[in-house]
Amino acid sequence: MVSSGTVRRLGFTCLVSLPFTAALALLPPAQAQNADPVFPEGADEMQQDLTDPNDLRPLTQDSSLLSLQGGQRLMAEASGAVDSQNYTLAATKLQEARQVFNQLSNFYQQLSTSFSGIDNRIFDAQRQKALETAEMRDEATYQLALVHRAQNQPELAVPLLIQIIRSQNPTRDLGKRAYQQLFELGFVDSPYPRPRDSQPTSSSPATPGS
User: Fold this and answer.
1) Half-sphere exposure of residue 96, counting CA atoms within 13 Å on the CB side?
2) Taking a C-beta distance cutoff of 8 angstroms, is the pair 95, 144 a contact?
3) Which residue, among 27, 12, 126, has the nearest Cα to 79 in the 3D structure?
4) Degrees to nearest 5, angle at CA 109 with 104 and 114
5) Alpha-carbon torsion 139, 145, 146, 148, what sign?
6) According to the model, what pLDDT value does residue 23 have?
7) Contact, 14 vs 157, CB < 8 A?
8) Helix (H/G/I), strand (E/B), else coil: 120
9) CA angle (27 as vertex; 67, 64 as ends), nearest 5
């Protein structure tokens, strides 16, 4: 049994959260864009100043279901649940956070691809956001695996850890930590990185991550 302190020391995305999915299903369908849209009188005055830090748009607030801030809020709630050893609640919050970050990463990647060869500024910005949110998704996945260890459910932790290694590459820090968890669980027999005295004299360069 892994204690709350152990989860913290070790470092503190497969199941889809029903509450999150159900909430998305309530969103109204997108309307077809008219060729000649008609704007209400005074629309220019009603236009938001997006440079005003006090004028927050809906998806920049932590109350939104689909926002970076919303995912971070779920991570914080999961951390609090771990502190109180409420691992069931922690797992639920981490599953929701994982889904949020995964959706964001996919959407940013789609936007980036759409602007390829059209506007490099938007292409690069959305690609960077896709990478950052994918990193957050993998971190949420790692923490979820630790919670499953604390619940004595290694069979649920192993698939998540393997997903992290595939996403991150074993040479990166999070990939190494995920592999170490597999080693501690007894799923793999060979430690990585190898002890210095057992390192081969020459090695091939690391394969770039996907």
Assistant:
1) 27
2) yes
3) 12
4) 130
5) positive
6) 42
7) no
8) helix
9) 20
Q: Per the omega criterion (within 30 degrees of 0), is the bond before 193 cis?
A: yes
Each residue's pLDDT tens digit, 119-136: 999 999 999 999 999 999
What is d(CA 94, CA 181) in angstroms, rounded to the nearest whole number?
A: 18
Task: Enter the tokens of residue 137.
Answer: 């998704």
Q: Is the dihedral of CA 8, 9, 10, 11 positive or negative?
A: positive
Given a contact cutoff of 8 angstroms between Cβ atoms, the answer to whether 152 and 1 are in contact is yes
pTM given for the model: 0.67
- Tell me which residue has tokens 């592999």: 179
Separation of alpha carbons 8 and 13, rounded Å: 19
Residue with tokens 């996907």: 210
CB burial class (10 A; 0-12, 13-18, 19+) of residue 162?
Answer: middle
Residues 6 or more apart whose CB falls under 8 angstroms from that of 195 comprise none
Q: How far is CA 59 from the centre of its chain?
A: 17
Name the one residue in this structure whose structure tokens are 């059209």: 118
Q: pLDDT per residue over 121-179, tens digit each?
A: 999 999 999 999 999 999 999 999 999 999 999 999 999 999 999 999 999 999 999 99
Task: Encode pLDDT of 37-85 as tens digits.
Answer: 333 444 344 344 444 555 556 766 656 778 899 999 999 999 999 999 9
The 3-state DSSP class for residue 40 equals: coil
